[in-house]
Structures are given as structure tokens and as C-alpha cells.
Design goal:
This is TonB-dependent receptor. Keywords: Cell outer membrane, Membrane, Receptor, Signal, Transmembrane, Transmembrane beta strand, Transport. It is found in: Cell outer membrane. Belongs to the TonB-dependent receptor family. By secondary structure, this protein is mostly beta strands. It has one domain: Maltoporin, Chain A (Beta Barrel). The chain is built from 6 helices and 38 strands. It has a 22-stranded antiparallel beta barrel. It starts with a helix and ends with a strand.
């Protein structure tokens, strides 16, 4: 079966690339636009490596999580060790993310969701509330500051008047419902989104539930100006079953981490269930944006946003509580001018400031109850950057972008009064860092665009790395930095029925931050020297057929291929030399194929196939997660009535019943690497659109 699926995907790719499939050339694919660079730009001509995920693509999947959606993008790897526990990587290692999202800058409706320390709670957001996602791959500090992996821009504001009510249920106790309301008037637009999701999980002690409420309000109070509010409240809780050893995995993959019997001089270690291990996060996030268009050339935007986080993490060895408050301001001016047919330019100048206060307390964990204080610290993170960007269009063929940001970061730490094991106090001020970027695209002809990019990446350590679960401040941890070199091309058929994007890059990273686990099972982080990250990404989108009169009204096929050669360059830890080893947590090969078929009677079939090669789970390159293939499918039928549309859907996940994990623990102490994912399961539901 595995060989058959590989051959099938290869045949699809070669057939499409060499034009052996006949299509109706009277139809065109819709031109994709990108708003990431502070103005609308056509994706095909953009001198950047960008992928846009639309609302239709998000809704095609089972709507249980964002994982299959983001894993359909070349160069992107999203993991979910248990329901709700996300990790995200763009062209890089997951070493820094035992949970959460780091090393990637994330914005929600133009507001920074990533806090001042570089940490992002992506799992707070309900996947059905998203209108589209723009993913900028590779270091892009020109407008977004410190990052070495890339940028994710999440947009929730829709454009259609609609009311949607959705409900679905499936295997392993899955249940989800949401209500979405969007109204657009002449000068005022608003939307409300409510959602609740629950799942028992495949493994013991892996229950997840999330309540979510989101709203956007936009008011154009005069022809040149508009005011917009965007915000959400999320109450997320999920149990963490913990990693298993190979023998435990073979004995019972559905078990949570068992207790370890007493073995002098070690005492007994309780199980994940005994300690009620889990994550509980209640967050308010919101911000106001004001935009003013002075004239056809000048525009100004300013936004104020904030986030309030109550976070609890009962763990095997301690019970952590965090109170985090973040504030941000972002402002920029834009000037654009068309001098002549041979010269058009766009200039941006801006500033972003963020501040995060984190009160972090660690207690003894007495079977899920708070015990005595182990440590208590206050960390104040501050990050800010100035940015500027100049984009020149020289005629119709040549486009050049020159940009940079000047980044500042520092943090203060001090012991809180109740601390019993003070880490001391002090200030760490990182050196100001420039992140320049030069990008050029050239139109060889109307069907072929070539591009080249040189950019510098820079990523500061997050508060969870400065003060990891060992509750010790590490002021010596340095920021990652490096240079990225990239070549790419985009091509399309004359009628835009087939669209192909290829990029090849080399990212030379210094001071790579990696996670280590001590003998007492506490996390800490070190700089591992450098890494060499070479890769190629291929994305193919095609409309094979569009004929409303035929039984098959429309057939679309997409494929995304990721080829990685990521290795440690100079990584010596004590007596161990890991130089030349594969970068932990990143497979050398991954690809996703998706087929969407629209039939008569408004019946739609969506099938997605994903392959993930074997993955090194420790820096020594001695333990691997085996390769796996996933096959998911969803069948939908829509019934149109007088004033509404009713849609029924039924889907299956992991149809091949593969043994796999969506996210293993890296460099795990005691050999507890494995987090097995759910076997074959089914989901069904309905939605009402008014």
C-alpha cells in the first residue's frame, strides 16, 4: 500500500508538470493576492516565498484542528502531541518547542499575537474562526522584527454577510460546535464567533476542551479613515499524557506515562495521571487599529493591543502558575507612487514595541494540588524594532525589495517575595541587531517569474527558555542568528490552470537553541553552536477540470513537497560531538497531496494524503520515529432551500490505520520519546448557513 501511494502521487506530479491531463482552457484560476506587505500585491509577482491558505482550504478538512491544514504547506511542520498541544516549525528545528510555538512571529488581524519574549499560544484560536492565513517562509524581519523561521499572518475578518451554525462529532469523544455571524453595512462591519470543542483523546489522560469567543468591529467614520477592533477570549484546558518508552509503546500505545517504581537512591516517580498533568490557559486578547488615507500616495496606521494570560501547568515534578500581561504598539506610514510606466515604488517606515510581564511560580505538585513554593520569579521582557522597506518596480519585468529592521531586546528578572530558591536579580540587554533583506524578482515571460532572496534571521530566547521547568534563570542564553540565501521560481499555464512554485534555500544558523533534559527530568536550554539548513520546497496547485454541465463539475489537485538536509554544523556538548548529525525533529522528506472533487447535486469529496519520512528524535541520531503515511477523506452534501443552505458531512481520519505520532518528545530523558496518535476514526456533522 505504501509503495502504491508513493507511485500514485509521483504519477500525479509528473503528469501535471508535463501537461498530459487535458483541461478546459476557457476557465481561469483566481489571481491570489497577498496583504502581508502593508498593501495588496499579486502573489505571482511578489519577490518573496509566500503561501496563502484560504477559507475554503481550511473548511475542506475535518475542522478538528489546524494541523492537517498547515501540514499541507511545503516547508511547514505542525505537530500535536495530544489534542491541543501544538508545535509549529517553518524551515527549522522543533528543538525549542516542547510545547507552544517559538522561533516564528505570529500576527492576528495585524496585531502581534507573539509576546515580547517570542512565545505564541497558537492553540488558543478556534480554527473555524479564521478567514485566511498568509505564511512567509524564512527570515523576514523587514516588517515583522525578530524571527528566524518565518511569519504567520492570521486574518479572521470575512467579507460576506452570513450566519453559520455548525456541529460535528466523532471518534474518541470528539465534539465541536460553533456559531459565526458576519454583517457588512455601508460604513460598519462586525462579526461574532463562538465555539466549543471537546475530545477525550486516543490515549488515557488526554482530554481536551476549549471555549472560544471572538469579535471584530470595523467603522469607517469618514471616507479616508477607519477604526477597527479585533479580539478574543479563549479558555483552553488539556491533559498531557506524557511520553512513552519503546517497550511501553509496544505494550499499550493508549496508556499515559506510568509511574516509575522506587529504585534506590531514586524515589518513586508518580504517573502523569496521578499528578493530573495538563495545561490550562485563560487568555484575553484584543487591540484597536486606526488607519488613515491622506491621499492616493500617503497612508498611516497605528494599533494598540494587549493580552492577559492565566496559565497553569501541573507537571510530574512541579506545579507551575503564570500570570502574563503583554502590551504592544505598532505604527507605520506608507508612500506609493507611479512615476511612469518604467518606475513604480512603495516605501514603508514603522515601529513596533512590546512589553510582557511574567510572574512565574513553581510549587510542589501533590497529586494535582499546589504544595510548597519551589521558586517564584518576575521576568519583564521588552522588544522593539524600527523597520523600513522600499519596493521598486522597474517596468513590468523587474521588481526589487530592499528592507531592514533594527531590533532591540532586553529582559529583567528578580525573585518574588515568596521565593524559597531565588534565582537572584539582574538585567540582560541583548545587542541591537540589524535584519537586512534584499529580494529581486524577474519576469522572464508572462508565465515564468524568477526570484532571489538574501536575508538575515535573528531570534531571541523566550521566557520559557530563559527560565525553563528547572526554575533557574539562564542569563547566558544567546539569541539565534544567521544568513539565508534563496532562489525560486513561479510558473503557470497560459490560462492559469496550473500553478507551480519552487524554492531552494540555504540557511546558516549560529547559536542554535536546543532543549536538554536533566536527570531530574527538568528542562533547560543551551546554545548548540551552529546548523546548516539546506532545503527545497515545491508547491503545485492545479485545476484539472471545470465544467458545470458534466458529472464532475470541478476537480482540483494540489501537492506540496519538502526536501530537507538539515544538520548540526559544530555542536559539542561535554564529551559528545554531534557535529554532522541530522537536525533533531525534522524529517528529510515530507509531502502532501490533496484532491478536491465537486460533483453534481452539490456533492464534494476531499481526500488528503500525507507522507512523513523517519525523524531523528535525539541529537546523537540513535533513536528515530519511523516514517508514516496518513490518508484522510471528507464527503459533503449541500441542500439549498429558500433562505438557507444545509450541509451534511462525513469524514474519516487515518484511513490506513497507521501507527504514528504527530509529535514525539525530543532528547527525552529515560527513553520516553513516543506520543502515539489516534488510529482510524470517523467524524460527521452538519452546518446551517443563513
Amino acid at each position: 500500500m505504501k509503495k502504491f501511494l508513493f507511485v500514485l502521487s509521483f504519477q500525479f506530479l509528473t503528469t501535471l508538470c508535463f501537461g498530459q491531463i487535458k483541461v478546459d482552457s476557457t476557465q481561469k484560476l483566481k489571481e491570489i493576492t497577498v496583504k502581508a506587505y502593508l498593501s495588496e500585491s499579486k502573489l505571482f509577482n511578489l519577490p518573496s516565498t509566500v503561501t496563502v491558505i484560504g477559507k475554503t482550504q481550511i473548511q475542506q478538512n475535518q475542522n478538528t484542528s489546524l494541523v492537517p491544514v498547515l501540514n499541507s504547506v511545503a516547508g511547514v511542520k505542525m505537530e500535536e502531541r495530544s489534542p491541543g498541544s501544538y508545535r509549529l516549525s517553518i524551515r527549522g528545528s522543533l528543538l525549542r518547542s516542547p510545547f507552544g510555538v517559538r522561533n516564528v512571529k505570529v500576527y492576528f488581524d495585524g496585531l502581534p499575537l507573539t509576546d515580547a519574549s517570542g512565545n505564541t499560544y497558537l492553540n488558543l484560536i478556534d480554527q473555524q474562526s479564521i478567514s485566511n492565513i498568509e505564511i512567509l517562509k524564512g527570515p523576514d524581519g523587514s516588517l515583522f522584527g525578530a524571527n528566524s523561521g518565518g511569519v504567520v499572518l492570521i486574518n479572521s475578518q470575512g467579507t460576506e454577510n452570513e450566519t453559520n451554525i455548525n456541529a460535528s462529532a466523532g471518534g474518541y469523544g470528539f465534539f465541536r460546535e460553533n456559531i459565526h455571524l458576519q454583517k457588512n453595512y455601508d460604513k460598519y462591519q462586525y462579526s461574532f464567533h463562538q465555539a466549543y470543542q471537546y475530545a477525550d483523546g486516543y490515549r488515557n489522560h488526554s482530554l481536551m476542551k476549549r471555549s472560544y469567543f471572538q469579535t471584530q468591529q470595523k467603522f469607517q467614520y469618514n471616507p479616508k479613515a477607519e477604526l477597527k477592533f479585533s479580539g478574543f477570549y479563549s479558555d483552553l484546558g488539556y491533559q498531557t499524557p506524557g511520553g512513552l518508552t519503546a517497550s511501553q509503546l509496544a505494550a499499550n500505545p493508549q496508556q499515559s506515562r506510568p509511574a516509575i517504581p522506587a529504585n534506590p537512591p531514586r524515589q518513586r516517580t508518580p504517573s502523569a495521571e496521578e499528578q493530573k498533568a495538563g495545561i490550562y490557559n485563560q487568555t484575553f486578547f484584543g487591540g484597536i487599529t486606526h488607519q488613515y488615507q491622506f491621499n492616493k500616495n500617503w497612508q498611516h496606521s497605528i494599533s494598540f493591543s494587549g493580552m492577559d494570560v492565566d496559565f497553569e501547568n501541573p507537571f510530574i515534578t512541579n506545579y507551575e502558575k503564570r500570570k502574563e500581561v503583554s502590551l504592544a504598539i505598532r505604527t507605520f506610514v506608507s508612500y506609493q507612487n507611479t512615476v511612469s510606466k518604467l518606475l513604480k515604488y512603495n516605501w514603508n517606515l514603522g515601529y513596533e514595541y512590546q512589553h510582557t510581564n511574567s510572574q512565574i511560580r513553581n510549587y510542589d505538585n501533590n497529586r494535582g494540588e499546589i504544595g510548597d513554593v519551589q521558586a517564584a520569579d518576575l521576568i519583564k521582557n521588552e522588544s522593539q524594532f524600527l523597520f523600513t522597506r522600499l519596493k521598486l518596480d522597474l517596468g513590468e519585468r523587474l521588481s526589487t525589495e530592499i528592507s531592514t529592521s533594527l531590533n532591540f531586546a532586553n529582559y529583567d528578572f528578580e525573585a518574588l517575595p515568596e521565593s524559597q530558591n531565588s534565582s537572584g536579580f539582574g538585567t540582560v540587554k541583548l545587542n541591537p541587531e540589524l535584519m537586512p533583506r534584499l529580494a529581486v524578482s524577474y519576469m522572464a515571460n508572462k508565465a515564468l517569474i524568477l526570484r532571489g532572496i538574501i536575508s538575515r534571521g535573528y531570534s531571541t530566547p523566550t521566557k520559557d527558555e530563559i527560565r525553563a521547568s528547572d526554575a533557574t534563570i539562564n542569563p547566558n542564553l544567546q539569541a539565534e542568528n544567521g544568513w539565508n540565501y534563496e532562489l525560486g521560481l513561479r510558473t503557470r499555464t497560459p490560462f492559469e490552470r496550473i500553478y507551480l512554485d519552487i524554492s531552494a534555500f540555504y540557511y546558516r544558523l549560529n547559536n542554535a537553541i536546543v532543549r536538554r533534559v536533566a536527570a531530574n527530568e527538568q528542562d533547560f536550554y543551551v546554545n548548540a553552536g551552529g546548523t546548516n539548513q539546506k532545503g527545497m520546497e515545491i508547491e503545485l496547485n492545479s485545476n484539472l477540470l471545470k465544467n458545470n454541465a458534466s458529472f464532475f463539475k470541478q476537480i482540483d489537485f494540489n501537492t506540496a513537497i519538502t526536501l530537507n538536509d538539515f544538520k548540526f554544523r559544530d555542536y559539542v556538548l561535554g564529551e559528545n560531538n554531534f557535529s554532522g548529525n541530522l537536525l533533531t525533529g525534522i524529517p528529510k522528506t515530507a509531502f502532501t497531496n490533496a484532491l478536491n472533487v465537486n460533483l453534481q447535486q452539490k456533492i464534494t469529496l476531499f481526500v488528503q494524503h500525507q507522507y512523513n519520512a523517519k525523524t531523528s528524535l535525539n541529537d546523537a541520531e540513535t533513536i528515530f520515529a519511523k516514517s508514516y503515511q496518513l490518508l484522510d477523506a471528507k464527503l459533503s452534501w449541500q441542500k439549498l432551500l429558500k433562505n438557507y443552505a444545509l450541509t451534511f458531512h462525513f469524514g474519516a481520519n487515518n484511513i490506513l490505520n497507521a501507527d504514528y505520532s504527530l509529535g514525539n518528545d525530543l532528547n527525552a530523558f529515560g527513553g520516553r520519546y513516543f506520543n502515539p496518535a489516534a488510529k482510524r476514526n470517523f467524524v460527521g456533522g452538519l452546518s446551517l448557513r443563513i
